[in-house]
Design a protein that fits this description.
The chain has 424 residues and is of the alpha+beta class. The protein is built from 16 helices and eleven strands.
């Protein structure tokens, strides 16, 4: 799979990935900013701005006017906000890519930011926050990051809180956009049944006059100062306890990231993985359980999520710890066949994901924004294949130590003390 990364005279970069067999394409605008770039008093501003952009633009002054155009071409449009990026996209039939680019550029570059729309949308976002808080499976990740990144904006919820959302006003959006929404801090991606030349013409047509200046955005870098296991409990009446148990790791560009991903896959990357078999199949302690890697620029973590029987939550934590430490101390040895299976699992899941232009967009855009180099899928497959068992065991020995360990749990527990004792 080939890509081409180019730059306009304004400094705006655009990346194209032609997939000539497809009748569809995804156009996206990425901004290298998110909740970690915010101030505490207006936490949630990045996500709030994502909402308000859809409420009206210079050419289409209402949410209905924007959605009507996209609906008229059978398009799909949405946006997303993370800790360090924001994106807006439209997926459509190739024949309508010009109109999609017109709509998207006008939304992102010329939002009206009407005060009345901002005030009305506050209610919507506060309800979104309530939905997350009432859905432990969705909220537990925020609880985990709040303890893992305590004292740093990485630990703040991307959506903010009801209090901070109420405190946001139009001038906050204007100031935030002036700081972060400038050409060199943005990326346009065009992926699907399009050519490089046609994509370039469209980007120049709709983004060519966008020439804002800015200073490279900075953030409060996180450094791990943790010296012992940490536990955060959110007491909530529920029939099930939701937990994440994980260890701090390195950031996006760490050389050993492929070995860490294979370690994560061996532990909980499928229905034949160790966590799935031991926690769910052999003991019936959970329905949902999975292990994964999450990374930011300078830090990351390997963690396992599980929704477990309340009365047996401590047993589930014990079993999960046994799996982690069993690999570290070589009591639960990894066989070469298991490593090979993990490699094929990772490559297979990536190949399946990349059949969708939205996933291809994310695959390349994340690298273009944050990576030291952009790897094609084929190059990633080779990196995975080159990882030896010794590298996986090295990562396990380094990661699985108490001073890197964190536990977040939501459930009907009055105290988290018994979980603190489990982690010692």
């Amino acid at each position: 799979m080939d890509y081409k990364l180019q730059k306009l005279s304004s400094g705006l970069r655009f990346l194209t990935v032609p997939m000539p067999s497809l009748e569809s394409a995804t156009v996206a605008v990425w901004v290298k900013t998110g909740s970690r770039y915010e101030e505490k008093g207006t936490n949630g501003l990045s996500h709030f701005l994502e909402h308000v952009v859809f409420k009206g633009s210079k050419k289409r002054p209402s949410a209905h006017a924007i959605s009507e155009v996209v609906d008229s071409i059978g398009g799909e449009f949405n946006a997303g906000t993370s800790k360090d990026w924001t994106n807006f996209y439209i997926k459509t039939r190739v024949g309508n890519i010009d109109l999609a680019m017109d709509v998207l550029s006008d939304m992102v570059l010329n939002p009206l930011l009407k005060e009345e729309e901002i005030e009305r949308e506050k209610g919507t976002i506060i309800q979104e926050i309530a939905m997350y808080e009432d859905t432990p499976m969705m909220h537990i990740g925020d609880i985990f990051e709040s303890v893992a990144f305590d004292g740093n904006p990485l630990g703040w919820d991307t959506v903010g809180s009801a209090k901070t959302v109420k405190n946001i006003h139009r001038n906050d959006f204007v100031r935030y956009r002036d700081i972060h929404y400038y050409s060199e801090n943005m990326l346009v991606t065009v992926v699907g049944g399009v050519t490089d030349n046609n994509s370039k013409k469209l980007v120049e047509k709709y983004f060519g006059e966008f020439n804002s200046n800015g200073v490279e955005s900075t953030f409060n870098e996180f450094s791990v100062r943790q010296a012992k296991p940490q536990v955060k409990l959110q007491t909530k009446d529920a029939e099930q306890a939701h937990l994440i148990l994980g260890f701090m790791s390195e950031g996006r560009n760490y050389e050993g990231r492929f070995a860490q991903s294979l370690l994560s896959t061996i532990l909980g990357g499928g229905m034949s993985s160790r966590m799935f078999i031991e926690v769910r199949e052999r003991r019936g302690l959970a329905y949902a359980i999975r292990t994964g890697m999450d990374r930011y620029q300078e830090v990351g973590y390997l963690s396992t999520y599980a929704g477990v029987n309340v009365e047996k939550a401590d047993e589930a934590v014990k079993v999960m710890l046994e799996q982690y430490y069993g690999i570290k101390n070589l009591k639960l040895k990894i066989k070469n066949s298991e490593l090979l299976k993990a490699k094929e699992f990772l490559k297979g899941r990536l190949a399946l994901a990349l059949e969708d232009t939205k996933d291809v967009t994310s695959f390349f855009a994340d690298q273009a924004l944050f990576a030291n180099e952009i790897l094609t899928p084929e190059e990633v497959y080779k990196k995975i294949d080159k990882v030896g068992l010794d590298s996986v065991l090295f990562e396990a020995a380094k990661l699985f130590v108490p001073e890197r360990l964190n536990l977040a749990i939501i459930g009907p527990f009055k105290s988290g003390e018994k979980f603190v004792q489990l982690l010692k």
